[in-house]
Protein 1
Amino acid sequence: MSNLKKTIAVAEMSYIIRKGLVYSLSQLPIVEKVVEWKDLENLSAQSIALRPDAIVINPMVLGRISKSEIRQRLKLDKKMVVIALVYNMIDEQFYRSYDAVIRINDSEANIENILTNALKNGNSSGSGQDDLSERETEILKSLVKGMSNKEIADHHNISIHTVITHRRNIARKLEIHSVSGLTIYAIINKLVDVNDVKY
Amino acid sequence: MNSITRKYTKTTKMSELIEADYRMLLLLSRLGISLGFGEMSIQAICKKYDIDADCFLFMANLQTNRSVYDYRAEFEKIGLDSVLLYLQKSHSYFIDRRLPHFRNALQNAISNLETNVQKIILRFFDDYSNEVNEHMQYENDTAFPYIFSLLGVEVGKDYNITVFEDHHSDIEGKMAELSRILTKYIQGDATSLTMTNVLIELHIIQEELDSHTFIEEELVIPRVKKIEGGKAKR
């Protein structure tokens, strides 16, 4: 089940607390991967590309800002769940806008509950490891043949909006975002002939 | 990853540095320092190659001791000009040596695939190389001369570091895609190390480029902005 495999990011400056949290989270069955973000400036392209399903962050890192600002600052996509990690006496207003709160004295079972609920509500997409659907494969073929979104839409009798959704899902599933990369995929998997591709 | 943290000083032997972290071999390669340094210290080698030893130590510590090294504070203490020289040397390392070397290895590793597949993979890599090349050339020709002039006397009227920042697009993503494609969709020969080595090299290059970009974006650009601000006030 894809919703069993979650990637969680931990953004916390304290080494001891960060390591402890990373360990605790990695022990939970719903967690597949934990990424550490030591400070926000250090977010390498790679950790962003990992697209965590949730981020657990000390609110003091960001100060008192709204949820949308958090997403903006961290360049998160909309589906990502933002959980506050609270371990000192701070005013509730600092973490009011977060999706959930994990406290330093929460038990293992508690943490698991909080995380599970937050991820459920956050309708997160899960880190896809599924194969392409038939429809997606067809759209991929058109794409690497050099067709525009409009042309693909007309060809398959769907809206441009749907084409864009399919493209997004293809990129997410394969973790290949460039058309040139998708072209290699299509040729290796014999979806198209090399003479048909635009790239 | 590393269980031992060791801080380097100017009197550390170059050979000890390599023993402590083999990735330092890459730093030497970027700086054009050849092996065979016997018992020479970091300081002595740097002098021989006319490299700023403080800058060398900064790069070494940044790369091996990042989690315990206060690199932001330390960066303020080293000369920006020597950092730029390091970055320029790194550019020629990537463009003239690193990427061409990798291309040969890649070509060799995929030589048993269908010609069409080989061609398209190499084309993907070549396009990527060209992008890197163009980007680094731009820095060499435009951005760096500007910063050098800033360190001298005048502020260039028609250029500021924000232009450079905008120009600094993400070039690492494509390497990650290539790595995924090679790992996920190419049936390799389990007994051959050729593809394994290529993939490891690919990951190393990615790390090197990440670190290169980090130095430019997180350390150099903010410092240049500060200098620009200081000049504007006067």
Protein 2
Amino acid sequence: MNANPEMMAAGTASPRNGIVMDCQLEKVFYGDFLAVRDSKVPIEKNKITGFIGPSGCGKSTVLRSLNRMNDLIPIFRFQGKVSYHGQDIYDKKVDPVVVRRYIGMVFQQPNPFAMSIYDNVAFGLRLNGFKGNLDERVEKALQGAACWNEVKDKLKNSGLSLSGGQQQRLCIARAIATEPDVLLMDEPCSALDPIATRRVEELMIELKEKYTIALVTHNMQQAMRVADTTAFFGVDISQGSRTGYLVEMGPTRKIFEEPEQQLTRQYVRGEFS
Amino acid sequence: MASHQFDNVDRSGSVSGPPSGGDYALDRSFRGIAWFSAALILALVVYIVVEIGGKAMPAIAEHGLGFLTSTAWNVQTGQFGILPQIWGTLYSSLLALILGGVFGVAIAIFLTQDFLPSRLAMVFRTIIELLAAIPSVVFGLWGIYVLIPLLRPVANWLHANLGGVPFFGTSLSGPGLAPAALVLAIMILPTVASISVDALRQIPYKVKEAAYGMGTTRWEAILKVMLPTASSGILAALVLGFGRALGETMALAMLIGNSNQISLSLFAPANTLAALLASSFPEAGPVEVRALMYAALALLAITLIVNAVGLAVMKFATRKFEAER
Amino acid sequence: MSVPDLTLESSIRNLEPTSSRMPSLHRAPLEIRALKSGFLTALTWIGAILASVPLFSVIYMLLVEGGSRLNWETLTALPPSAFDLGGGFGNAIVGTVVMVGIATLVSVPIGILAAVYLAILDPDSKLAHTVRFLAKVLTGFPSILAGVFVYAVMVVTMKTYSALAGGVALAVLMLPTVVLAAEQAMAMVPKKMKDAAYGMGCTRTQVIWKVVLPTGAPGILTGVMLAIAGAAGNSAPLLFTALFSDYYLRSLTEPTASLAILIFNFSGMPYENQIQLAWAASLVLVLIVLVFNILARIIGRQKY
């Protein structure tokens, strides 16, 4: 554990939490292209960790490295360590499928399956061989995702029949139905209108009581509103290509009000983007 | 993987857990079976080539390349050659290609270049697709009882008045090249039309806009911009339609007359490789079967080459647009 | 610029100042340009109508010649011998259904599994590229050669023509259609749905079974229906794999009748009765093919 949790927690009112995922990315490649380098991102329990930065800074790549989604891209290569409860998820013995069972993900585009709302939410439960009361868990997940009232009368309808915002909350319900340990959210509001965005943001704040959340957002206001800790990524173009790296990470207020790095200050003031 | 199940994760309500041993076994065996099925298709093609080639070997050893240039097919004397069948195959397919190609491309233009309200275009598209659904034997039957009686007076008039032209050198007594080629044209028309439609649809809308923006009429846009842009796709359609025609069997066996002669006349009976196989195989003795296997190998080689060329052209056509996008 | 003289001239003419010093923007109906366009449009219309004549002629003949002879006897009775009147082709319907059934049972599982490999498991591998190419080549493979192949492999070794050999020959023809249609249907399942399934911690097999196959099912079924329609109408490979039989099917390892071969055999006979039966059998065969074609359309139209 290289990160100093004491320092991370300074400035926030909540007591110091444990670190669920200690991510130390050394080099992340797509083929020969170095996408991200030298970024240490500890993710604390029951907090929202926001990832911000200009486009092309690799914040999504970092997030998708945390549950090994990037392994689906054949040319992806990872150097470093992602410690999850003390185990490196990039250890040779680790199966990425198992990692994804504990570390759920909500994607940029709402992506319900072409099946009923109920089956969408029950998907993960069935997948994990859940033997208990399915109806109860589905309802609980939909309530947790703040869409139970809207869909309770049409659980048999296709998940694709919902509006974009409802679809995204359905996807969140699907992700939390199995109550995974960590939720990774990759710009979950980018395809939503402002009202739907607000509902999803409120939901995230509720969810952090139970879950640990890592959130990629292209919207600085969103990071300010919901993130406890914010990581700012920059782009290094000195080597001729665009390589992302962590510039600064700390309590959200500190990052936005008194950042240590010049680059961060410029970015949060909107001097470049 | 058993040692890394993240079992120290403590969450009371969570149902997250690693896939069961059964899930893993299923995953591995299913992927194995899928790989095996894909490999099976490769094996099938190899097996087809090896089997037909192997069975043709004795005849190849016996007749050599002379088989391809000899005109005899005599079971009694054991003399076999397939030049008339190769000629008939290529000649009938070429005629069909010209007819079916012209109509097929015309229909593709008709269907894609806003000549019709979309509802009517649907009707025409359905007609063409239904044409593709009619079985070969049914076209054969139709050819015998509708097309040949219809063609005969026309053919005989042409022969009587223009008999000097080699194409009309004989009269049409019944089955012959003309009805066979006509039916063949009808049968390859849907292939040519549908691939050409795809080729024309692939053209980005901006190309069309650019043409109209220059003040072209619809036909100027079609002839000078759309067709040249889709040319390689249309070429692929023609080559693949030609390949279809080469291998077409039943209608030809019923309409071409099964006569092993080489003639330029459209009204003379002829034969094709596929029709030869269809008409001779069921009653062939061992010696003739060997020769027929050689003929089958020749047909296989011709169609494989033509189809491979067609697919290569099509791939080239598709890639051109992908590069542009 | 490859603007032809025609166009250039007329454009210039159009641009010359008219009395109001403005180019006329009206259509000039007697211009060569317009004439040419009209001529080509008319030609295309004629071509399209001409191309649909054979279909209507075939349908007319089927209904008039075949329809008049279609009754319970023709659908159930055995084929008549040369001078007999009456008779039917019940055994040929059974034979066609059985052989197409065998072909479906053989080709559909293999085809879909191979498509899974091509579309999901390893789309960019050498094997996938090779198989994809071969499947496309096989769609243009002369059906008679499937017959020759199965004759060499099965008929010669089993020493008899059989429904089994006929079914396998048809399966060889169905396989590429099923593979290519199923691959396309699976590849069209949105990537974000597959990502969602992977993100939930599905194994690849679970992604395929729980998401890709159900979502792609309409497309896959459409391909299967089209393949069945094609196989039902295909006769060339049956000529010397199933041969023909004048009796009802009793075992899968004996020569078997089929509608297509019956039509082929009867079409050349000099007897009115047989020719009428050939038309009636054609009508039945076309109806079978059409049913599967229409099924394919209905299933294909359902959108998820």
